[in-house]
Every structure is written in C-alpha cells, then in structure tokens.
Amino acid sequence: MDSEMDGAERYDYDLIVIGGGSGGMACAKESAMQGAKVALFDFVKPSTQGTKWGLGGTCVNVGCVPKKLMHYGALLGGKLHHDAAKYGWQVGKDVKHDWATLVQTVQNHVKSLNFSYRSGLRVANVTYINALAKFTSPHHITYTLKGKEPTTVSGHYFLIATGGRPQIPPESEVPGALELSITSDDIFSLKRPPGKTLVVGASYIALECAGFLTELGFPVTVAVRSILLRGFDRQCSEKVGEMMFNLGTRFKMQVTPKRMSKTPDGQVEVAFSNGDVEAFDTVLYATGRHADTKGLGLDKAGLKTAANGKFECVHEQTNVPHIFAVGDVLFGKPELTPVAIQAGEILARRLFAQSEARMDYENVPTTIFTPFEYGCVGISEEIAIERYGENDIETYLFEFMPLELAAAHREKHPQACTSEMDVDLPPPCLAKLVCVSSLGERVMGFHYVGQNAGEMTQGFALAVRLGAKKHDFDTLVGIHPTDAESFTAMTVTRGSGESWVATGGCGGGKCG
Amino acid sequence: MAPIAILAAILFCNVAASNVEEMAAGHEAHVTNNKSTCPHSFVEDTQTLAKAKHPTSKESDVVSDEVQGAVIGGIIGGKNGSAGAVGGAMHGTGGAMYGGLMGSSGTATSAAPLSRYDLVVIGGGSGGMAAAKEAAKLGKRVALFDYPSPQGTTWGIGGTCLNVGCIPRKLMHYAALIGASFYDARLLGWQLPDVRGQGHSGIAHDWGQLVKFVRNKVRQLRFSYGNALRSYGNSLTYVNALARFESAGVIEYENPSSGETQKLTADKVLIAVGGRPNIPEDIPGAVEHDITSDDIFTLDRPPGRTLVVGAGYIALETAGFLNEINFDVSVAVRSVVLRGFDRQCAEKIAQLMAEVGVRFMYSVTVGSITKKQPDESGLPSLEVELRSRDGNIVTEVYNTVLFATGRTPETASLGLDAVGVKYDAQTSKIAVNDVEQTSVPNVYAVGDCIPQLELTPVAVRAGEVLARRLYGGSTEKMDYEMVPTTVFTPFEYGSVGLSEEQAVKKYGKDAIETFLLEVETAHTDPPALSRLAHSSAPLLTHFEDLELSGVHRPKVATARSDGFDIFLSASNLSKLVCLRNENNRVVGFHYVGRNAGEVTQGFALALRLGATKSDFDRMLGIQPTDAESFSGLTVTRRSGESFVAAGGCGGGRCG
C-alpha cells in the first residue's frame, strides 16, 4: 500500500495501534511478525459502575468469553433440573446455584487470558503501553503513564481499534438510569447475585444475558421497545423469544423505562412507559453500544466520524490515508470478534507484506448464545424477498425436538402453560434454508435455532460461501443422530402450506 | 382379548403418546418359538406388559399368534383394523387380520393365487423402511418383512439403529455427558454434592432408571415408525415374519399366526437385513455369559465392573458411556483402537478415554469366561482369562463381559444360494454393483449387509435413491464418497473423507499436506504452567475448548504421571488433510472434541463442494466456538513447527 517505507524511519513506530481488543491485537501481532515496529495502547475506562478489566478488549473481558462460560453454566442448569434425574442421575430436586462461585470461575479464566495476551504481545515483539492515547497531530499521539509526565510518540501508520461501549440513557432521558443500572460491562463480575432482573433492550446482548440469568434461576424480565433481534431473520428471532418465554423469561413488549429510583430496601423501582411500576434487584441496559472514539483527539489528526462516532472507511482506511480502523468502530460493518481479527490481520499484510487481499464482509456467520442458540449465515428471508422478489424465493423449513430432549420430555415454565395438559416444551429447533429459485436454488440464507447452533453453523457457513445449492444439501448424508442432519432432508417449503413441524422422530434425523 | 388390549393400547398411544410408561408394547412382536435360544432374556415381554398394564385382558398362555395377528392388523389394517378392534368386531384371529396383507379381498386361503408385489423388502430397519416408504410413495405395492432375530432377542420395527444402535446409544451418551459435566457444574456455581464412592461423577446413578427411560423412548419412536408405515395404507404391507427366497421372484414365509408357510410373488426384492454382533463361539463360556450391544441397552441389572472386548467404535462408545455413569470399565484391545479411522485421532480418543477413567489393555484377548457365585451385590461374577500377546495369562473378575468384535450380516436363512445371490463367504456381505443390484438382476441390497459404510443415514439414502431409480425415473446413484460420520465417545470424533494414512497411501506422502492446530490453554495456575513448560508433544495439535479450559477438568488419578499432571489433556484436535497439487483441496476433515457430530455435518457439505484450504482460511469463525478452529489452521505436519498459541478461548483467537 505504501512502498515508501523509508519514510517510516522518521517515526518512532511503523504502526501505532490504539485499542488492545481482538482487532487491535491481531493487527499489531501480524504487523510485528511482518517486521514492523509496533506499539499498542490499551486503556480501560471504568464502566458507569466502576468496573475495570485487563488487556484483551470486550470479547475476552466483558463479551464473548465470559458470556459463553455463563451460557455454559446456564445450560448445565437446564440439564440438572430437567434431564439428569430422568437419565438416572440422583441429583435431587432443585439444585441451587451460587452466583459468587460462577463469577469467580469466570473471572479466573478471564484473568488467565489477560495474562496470556500480555505474554503473546511480548513474544510477538509488540510494545504494550497501558495508557490512554490521544492524537496531537496526524502522526503524533500523547499519553500519560500513572505518576509520569506526558509522553509523545510518532507513528507512520495508525490503527484505531477502540471498540465500543454499552450506552445507558442520560439523566435527561431516563432519570435514575445512569446511576442505578448496570450493563454487560458489569454483569460478568457482579459481586452480588443479580436477583430479580430487568433487562432493557432486545438486542442479542440483551437476550443472551436474559437467557443465562433465567437458566441460572433468576426471575428475568425483558423490556422490548419494538421487536426482538432487529436485523435478524424474523421467524428465527421470534422463535428465540418464544423459547425463552417457554423457559421462563418474561417479556414486556412495546415498553421502555421512563424513570428509576431506589427503594428503601435497595431495589430499583422502574416506572415504564405504559404506566407499570415494578421493583427489581438489578436493571441491565443493553439497548446498544456506541463507538468509543471520543477523547481520541480526532480533530488534531483531521479525522471525521459519522454521527454515531464510527469511521466510514473504505477497506479500513479512514478519511486520513495513513490512519485505519477495524472492529466495532467501523461504520456499517458487523461488530464481531472474528471479523475484527481477520480485518486486522489482512490489513497488516497489506501494510507490511505487499499483500493486496481485502477483507470480505459478506456471508459472515454469527451465533446468538441464547439458551436455545441461533446461528445464521447469509441473508434473512425478509432481505431475500426484498432483494430477489417473493416469487423467486423458496424457503425450506423444518422444526423438531432434539432426540435427547424429546426423550426427557422437558416441560415448559408455568407461565407458558395454557392448561394443565399443555406442559411439554414445544420443538425448540428450527432449521431454515432461504433459496433463490432462479439461481438453481442457491442457498442465500442459512438459519438454525437450537442447541449447539454455534458449532453447527460454522461448517455450513463455509458451504454457503462455496455457493451450495439446495440439491447439494439434499445429497449430503446425515450424521446420525444429530440435530445438524436436519439440513440434509428438508422437503417442506413455506409456499407448500404443509406443516414443517416434525412428528415423532429422532431429532434432526430420519430413521423411520 | 389380548389383541384388543394391544390395539386399544395403540389407540391410547395415539392420543397420548408421550405417556409411554403406560403404554403396552406397541407393535413389538415376539417370535416365541425362538426365544428360548436366546442366552439372555433382557427382553421386554409383550405378554407381561399387556397383562400388567391391562389387567382386564384375558390371559393367554403363549405370547400368542393372536397378538401377532392383531399387531399386524394394527399396522396393515390401518384405520379400518383399529376401528374394528374398537368396535369389538375383531375376534383375535390372526388370519382375519391378514386380510390386509393378502389383498383387498380380505381372505387368505392357501388356494388363493399368490399375491403380487412390486417390491418386497426384507428387513425393517432404516434402509428397508426408507426404500419401502419411498416405493409406496411412488405408487408401488410394497411388502415389508421385518426380520425377527433367530437368536430370539426380540424387538420391533426399526432395526438396529432404533432398537440397539444409534438411538439408545446416543441417549446413554447424553446421560454420560451429563455425568461428566457435574465437575463443571460445581465450578460454575451449581451446588451439587461430590460423593465419594460414586465414580468420577460424585453423584449416584440409577441404571434401572436409565434403562427404563431409554426403553420408553425407543418404544415411543417405534410406535411413531409404525404410524408412518401405516400411513401408506394398502400400498405398504408390513409382515413380521422371516422371509426367504423360494426363487428370485417368489418369497416364502411362515404366517406368524397360523404357522403355515405362505408365499407371495415379488417383481423386485430388496435385501436390507442389516447385521448382528459376532459372538465368538470358540471362546469357552463366551456364548453363555457374554452380552453384546444387542443387550446392553436393556440390561435389567447394573453392568457393574465391565470388560469390553474389542476396540471398534461400538466398543469404545459403550466403554465410554459406562465409564461416565460410574462403572469400572476395562477395554481389551487386540491390536489397535478404531481400525480404519485416522490414527492420530483414534489415539487421541483412546488417550482422552484413559484420562477420564477407562482402563485399556492392549494386545490382550479373552481365553475363557467362567461363571462364579454372584458377588455381594448380587451381580454375576464372571472369571475371565485374559491372554496377552507375549503369552502372559491373567484372570480377572467382571460382572459383565461385552463383546464388540465386529458384526456379520444375517443372511444365512434367506436362501441366497438357492437363487444365486452372491455374497462373500468370509464376511457374509452381499455383493452389489453401483446401483445396489446383486448378482440376481431383480434382487437388490442396501445397508449393513453390503460391503459399504455401515451407517443408518447411508442405508436410508441408498434405499430412497434406489426406490427413485426403480420407480421414479431417477438416474441418481448413491454416492458413498465423502460420507461424514461421528464416533460418540465421551469426546466425540467426527470425520469426513480420508484419514491421513489413507491419503498418503492413495496419493503419496509428497502430495499430502496435513494442517494441524495446536492451541494449548494458558493455565495461570502453577501446576499447569509447569506442565506446559515440560510439554514435549510439538506436533500434537490440540486445543481445549473454552468451557473446559474455564473449569480445568482433572484427569483420573490412574492417568497421572506425576503430581503436576492433574489436568485433562487438551480436549480438542482439529485436522485437515489436503492435496498439495490440487490447490490444497481438503480430502480429509477430522475433529475430536465435544459436539463433533454437530460440528462435522456442515463441513462435510463444504468438502463435497471441493473446499480448499484457502476457502477454510477465508471463512470467518463464530466466536467462541470449537468449530471456528478450522478457520485458523496454520501449522502443517511437514513444517515440523511447534506452534503453542497462548490461546484459551477454545477454537478461536481472541487476541
């Protein structure tokens, strides 16, 4: 990208990375491996509740990693409460959960990762500086180490990878919210059990937190302003919500909190837009995240951002040609760890290894780790219809109960039972392929709600990238008995009017 | 009255199938005259159940022909048969119910002309049922003979997979996984006791409950399979009888109610009789005292101290789940574990099993089995003479000896020689061409009785594809290449394509590039760090998944080499075998770890589409999963590099 590497000699570093999360570290290490001299700045501003953490960014500290561990703990709860006794384990009724033990195990693991990331940077020869960096000119930044004078260093290239942080509405919008609510920045290290919890928002973070708290045994209410999981496939999003409701999560639809105050016994009393007033032990906001780009001295570098603080980039390049951005600060790109990592690595090779490869932001698979997970790659049915027209879309559907859960006859939470007879959990798994007829039934959208959706979706994501057609799915032989094999035998289309809910059966398979 | 009771039960189940506990045996059918030949009676007794659950039903002194007649009526008579039963119009004569079988006339006299079927399927397992249903769907008249076991261990429709294979095995596997997760659960806050003397799990397990539970699920599924068959009405006739060839176009069988020999003509015949476990007749005591996978899922007492003989996937799966549900398990391995699978992965599986408590005895065979007085808990005591290759003989006592040393097709009684259907004299496998046709042109075979992959989905697909070729104008052949499979050991092993050894053999060592992932978890606790420092396995390509590295599962004491060696080895192994001169096209995908079955399925599709290594590299991971490990494989076996990533977030890279 820049062949005049000799110019770099005038600078302290070939590359200065601001932000030690997934994208920043990946780019820093790859650049160093290609021979560049690299400095990486990481500094964690405390959350509104004062929570701080170590190197590694959102994913490791307050994102995917602790979330997945809590999700795993929560799934075990489901197994202990519903399945274990039926499968012969004498676990006794109503196994209790201790929040503090969970937090300790999770935090121990997070700290071990912080440690390994520091040594990873050291091994890669990246200079790690634990300080907040600010631009003072397009090629200079200044930082202050604790108890030291400010220092200025220069760089040839810069990468901004500061990620995002959760938002809580200001005092002027929802009085009390900022002071009395926590966010995903706080929940994974919360010292006290969350107790009765209100989750505000219906983003994937909101639903994931509500999901694991429900399965851990806390009474959880989700306040939804409009719809669940905006941007995702509607049918699957609603399925995720329906299954959470069946497991005991309460949903308050079309409401927002208006006001919060502390009750004498320490609870948070929330007044909702519909007039309801209810007290909770914990209020968790998950209504969105903002890019953490304020305070970087952007104007000194001549950097421009969109209204939401994100950078509108072309191939990760900002409006200032030698300053780049990856990860959650990119405008209009998926906020996902593997995306940030790959973009960072590819960028490093473009900058320092004469590569011309570009990051491909299409067909990125993702999974929401709600109790029944939702994995997808490609486009939703709605977008497919918008893009290709309803007549050109064929949607294949199959809904079923996994073998292991079918055998255990899992029951619904009482709130979801309409009568004494209506106790069985409905089939939690939904397999869905969105195909374009005029392209030979090419699969443009793969969607799966069910256990292990994350593990299952990955391989299919590769197949979808390779242009898999419905016929290819049909000639694939299943692995029996799995849930994934459901995709090898889908015959019912939405247009057919037939029921796509499996009768009897052995999970995703076809044994008879 | 018994038939009515059974049919009533069937109807009852229609209304409340979930209440299988209350359900009589569905359409399970016994072949009573053979039952006595079964060495073990771990068998559901239709009669007893019918009596127990329906005390008003009149006692009959045999598990009668009437029952069978009624059962068949329930299947083949469809709604009419059931309605008749409810109306009390049915008198329990099997012959009457055979009306459905013998044609619309409803008469079944020996003087009647032979009924003609487009397709006769012999074997009511996965492949047979799939072909029968597909043919019926295509408008053909089909008879499906479900093949009762000559050894007398009886079950119902559904064949191996449903009754004594994948389904009960996966359920017991799930029970085992729950047991293995108690350790994790405690660390993640669940207040479970950890009781000494209750195996590795620390929680007592009730084998009887598990068996009852699994049996109920199997019975319920069997019932739904019966319903599915019944839904084809007169197009599909189900007969629970042993069929044999009189000629290539005439099938004879004993009417299960009257006992008389009957015949029907078949335009085409499909053999799908599957296989049964081998029982070594040359080992003294084996036939009398051993059990097989046919018996374990219904064993009416806890297995106790168990010896599994064999090291194929059935042996290891069985040893794996028994170990996790608190039993003391040893495996006698004659030569290697999981022959035919990728060596590195197979050995990884055995290593992990040893670390969670399974005892492996290599180069060991069984000399004899002698029954002794039951032990103090009332379980059988079997004295087993074990012979090692170097001539040592030791005697050990077990409560259960399970043989899993291979399976053989059940073709002996079919009369294949008489019609000239060729089969391998050694293996009994029926020879077929690439359209599943045997040496006799109108006779076909699918499933475990042909020399192909012995997998349910393969049999199902082959049966369907065959039916479509025969009756639906299709030309599509069954593609036996790139078929994925998974071994459901405690840590599962999923694969598709070639093993590294097969690839090297087929293409030559220089043509193969094997990509491996090594991510060692960074433990910050001193013992683990010490272990890391002393790690001398540079090319072992393991990572530990996030959830397990979060809790540091321990090894059992017997698998520890020293005081620092306390944690389970990395639980995951990801491996791609590629062809160098074809742009590193991936010809082998191998994965050891949790949920390998679910992980492997999608990648199997990608391999079928010709995925290359760079396609894998460009694929973005799903964070944090184990499956995402395949998006970042950088180390090749050829490079000789040791790549120890300080990872720790499972298959992914967080930083």
Write a brief caption for the model.
The complex is a heterodimer of chains A (512) and B (655). Chain A is α/β, with parallel strands linked by helices.
Furnish the topology, listing elements before pairings:
The complex is a heterodimer of chains A (512) and B (655).
Chain A: E1 13-18, H1 22-33, E2 38-41, H2 57-62, H3 64-83, H4 99-123, E3 126-129, E4 134-137, E5 140-144, E6 150-160, E7 164-166, H5 177-180, E8 182-183, H6 184-187, E9 197-200, H7 204-215, E10 220-224, H8 234-247, E11 250-253, E12 257-262, E13 268-272, E14 277-280, E15 282-285, E16 289-291, H9 298-301, E17 323-325, H10 337-352, E18 366-368, E19 373-378, H11 381-388, E20 393-400, H12 403-408, E21 429-436, E22 442-450, H13 453-465, H14 470-475
Parallel strand pairs in A: 1-2, 1-6, 2-3, 6-17, 8-15, 9-10, 9-15, 10-11
Antiparallel strand pairs in A: 4-5, 5-6, 7-16, 12-13, 13-14, 18-19, 19-22, 20-21, 21-22
Helix pairs in contact in A: 1-10, 3-4, 3-7
Chain B: H1 2-15, H2 32-35, H3 46-53, H4 65-76, H5 78-87, H6 94-102, E1 115-122, H7 126-137, E2 142-146, H8 159-164, H9 166-180, H10 182-187, H11 207-230, E3 236-240, E4 243-247, E5 250-254, E6 261-271, E7 275-277, H12 286-289, H13 293-296, E8 306-309, H14 313-324, E9 329-333, H15 343-355, E10 359-362, E11 364-372, E12 381-388, E13 393-398, E14 400-403, E15 407-409, H16 416-419, E16 443-445, H17 456-471, E17 485-487, E18 492-497, H18 500-507, E19 512-516, E20 519-520, H19 526-533, E21 542-543, H20 546-551, E22 572-579, E23 585-593, H21 596-608, H22 613-618, E24 635-636, E25 645-646
Parallel strand pairs in B: 1-2, 1-6, 2-3, 6-16, 8-9, 8-14, 9-10, 20-25
Antiparallel strand pairs in B: 4-5, 5-6, 7-15, 11-12, 12-13, 17-18, 18-23, 19-22, 19-24, 21-22, 22-23
Helix pairs in contact in B: 1-4, 4-5, 4-6, 7-17, 9-11, 9-14
Keywords (chain A): Disulfide bond, FAD, Flavoprotein, NAD, NADP, Nucleotide-binding, Oxidoreductase, Redox-active center, Selenocysteine
Family (chain A): Belongs to the class-I pyridine nucleotide-disulfide oxidoreductase family.
Cofactor (chain A): FAD
